[in-house]
Recover the amino acids of this structure.
């Protein structure tokens, strides 16, 4: 049974973990390389030729029947967050491998070459950025990022070299020969589960803007400083947290496409029960399918932060953009093929945005790209409880298989 | 000049500091004991007999002319916070010493014994509680507190023994022979400075109630969890921070006596930019001259915290009283003597509450007690910039001197 084969692979790769905290296979560690060696053997067993590209991505390739055609590619990542799950990343890779096996089982020859790509360090690492391999492949890993160091002082460039990459050659996109890119991923949310659905047809991957906002007041004695003399930075921060939430809900209701905003981090100094907070720093992030909505939100947030500072009698001492990635819409024609494939399999689907970033987001810059989701139990992810049923994983792999056959036959893709 | 003598003592004691972070003389350290040896020599030079009591308080005593009378006592503390100032504590002690010297200079014999008391560990230490020596003297240091350990695992009881105390004997108040207690302290706020005033006549020392409030939501993915499925603990916390401020201002305006409230601490988990905060913990404190106002505030705060939790769809998982000290009103007759002394010296005064806790707060449980404040430049305290002018320090000492003479002659005090 194909379900069994895919499931056994998922469970086997999960066994390659730091024993003290299952499931952990962080990029740039020996454990990660152990996982890759296992993966390379599976690729080879399935008849793929394997190589590492200059970005440190492991690629398994099956040549196609028609020479000169660009490749169809399926990819995701084998690295995990610390104490992560078994599905986020591996499922997309091993479902790609399952597509290769199904082609072989059914004796189907594709016109296009087919590649399965394990992108390097999709998860944030100690060096900072996420999606290192897909950035490298698409020309978005710049010298500044390559120079970022982990806490031990090692630059990312050296860490990539340890993983077999050739970062000194990363001066332009590595590929112009990809006809279409597909990624299967767990949803990491509860929309599919709550709707009793099988497959999420992704409309696009959100862009993400993060901004650090700092309020500076005066760290006065909490007993002796009357209200009218206070400059309480935490009061300003609290005000802005509520405004950011309200503003986010307003955008979510009134703008087309997915929009979400979160204040996830707060840091207060001196953070002592008997001292008026003199400094508060917030990290607010917004995610949207449309770049213009990110811009508009940040503009309104900046105004709200000034108002919050003024009301609390403190200074808004910083409004500092920390990172920004642009939204990546999924290709309409690929979405149609995925929808048709799911329909053929009588699976229940919904169209939804991806609120999380994925390697597919970068691949969308160099090729038509689309994604599908399978359900996550209770929406849990990045934790050992992450779970998708065997049949749900298999359904995702079948959709990929059917879609690859359809795309292979669509002259729009070569 | 007496000013010079007092000032030179202040500056000399300040020199006994951890050199890396002036001014630091934390209790339970060798540096603290070095300061105490210096102080003991000054006490002895001024003709005081010195001893350590069972609570580890250093006491210098001058016998009085009439046998059987209870003591007049002046006290404060020689320990500091880390990177603290030169005045918070030492000024009250050295002004007491100056009173002794002025009596000698002017050949004045008191009827009552006079004691100058250096209370052990007025500042919070690594063992937790503040005002350890004055709690011990007044019977408020219980077995639970004595068992508290510092991060290295040493119990407070052992640390006190290292300082020369006999904590095993602390089963009841140590003294029933104090006729009156006076403390001079820096204001640690800006009321005197802003009013161009010399002396603050303290009406009472606030009681302090601290409560830890915890909101438990769900630490979901910040990209994939739509607003209607969120349980954001930080949103509830922000709501409560604003409500606590508003409620505090309302109490301050509408209740008689001083009232202030502060949210000084916040802790958020996981505190990551891309995760909806799953847990937020706040520390709210209220300070009031009247115990009933603390009770009423906590009651309203508890209701507000439930409302904030409900609005954010999270659980208010704890509303945990952390500490409580009762208000300590200053004795009216002592206040009159202090006011008369300041008047005689043509000093400008104001009546105001002490929003900070002091050893005098505990001494008020076993004897009539009163305090005066001298100005703090820019209200700064617990920092190296803490400053009071030499003439302002001297004025405070003169008020103490004149008041001691008056109290000594008042038959209400024996």
């Amino acid at each position: 049974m194909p379900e069994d084969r895919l499931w056994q692979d998922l469970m086997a790769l999960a066994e390659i973990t730091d024993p003290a905290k299952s499931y952990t296979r962080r990029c740039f560690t020996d454990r990660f390389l152990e996982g890759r060696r296992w993966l390379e053997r599976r690729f080879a067993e399935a008849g793929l030729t394997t190589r590492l590209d200059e970005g440190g991505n492991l690629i398994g390739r099956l040549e196609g029947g028609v020479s000169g055609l660009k490749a169809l590619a399926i990819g995701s990542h084998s690295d995990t967050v610390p104490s992560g799950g078994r599905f986020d990343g591996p499922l997309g890779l091993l479902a790609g491998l399952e597509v290769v096996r199904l082609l072989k089982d059914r004796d189907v020859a594709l016109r296009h070459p087919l590649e399965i790509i394990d992108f390097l360090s999709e998860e944030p690492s100690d060096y900072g950025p996420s999606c290192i391999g897909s950035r490298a492949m698409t020309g978005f890993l710049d010298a500044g990022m390559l120079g970022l160091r982990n806490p031990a002082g090692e630059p990312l460039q050296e860490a990539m070299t340890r993983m077999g990459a050739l970062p000194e050659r990363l001066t332009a996109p590595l590929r112009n020969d990809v006809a279409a890119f597909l990624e299967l991923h767990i949803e990491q949310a509860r929309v599919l589960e709550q709707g009793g659905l099988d497959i999420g047809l992704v409309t696009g991957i959100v862009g993400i803007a993060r901004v650090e906002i700092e309020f500076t007041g005066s760290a006065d004695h909490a007993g002796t400083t009357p209200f009218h003399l206070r400059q309480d930075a935490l009061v300003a921060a609290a005000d802005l947290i509520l405004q950011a939430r309200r503003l986010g809900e307003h955008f979510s209701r009134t703008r087309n496409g997915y929009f979400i905003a979160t204040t996830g981090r707060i840091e207060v100094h001196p953070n002592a029960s008997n001292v008026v907070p003199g400094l508060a720093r917030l990290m607010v992030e917004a995610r949207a399918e449309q770049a213009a909505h990110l811009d508009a939100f940040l503009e309104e947030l900046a105004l709200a932060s000034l108002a919050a500072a003024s009301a609390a009698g403190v200074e808004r001492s910083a409004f500092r953009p920390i990172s920004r990635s642009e939204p990546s819409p999924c290709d309409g024609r690929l979405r149609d093929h995925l929808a048709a494939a799911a329909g053929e399999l009588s699976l229940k689907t919904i169209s939804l945005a991806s609120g999380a970033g994925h390697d597919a987001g970068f691949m969308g810059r160099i090729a038509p790209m689309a994604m599908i989701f399978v359900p996550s139990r209770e929406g849990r992810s990045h934790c050992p409880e992450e779970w998708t049923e065997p049949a749900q994983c298999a359904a995702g792999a079948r959709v990929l298989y059917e879609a690859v056959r359809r795309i292979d036959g669509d002259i729009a893709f070569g």
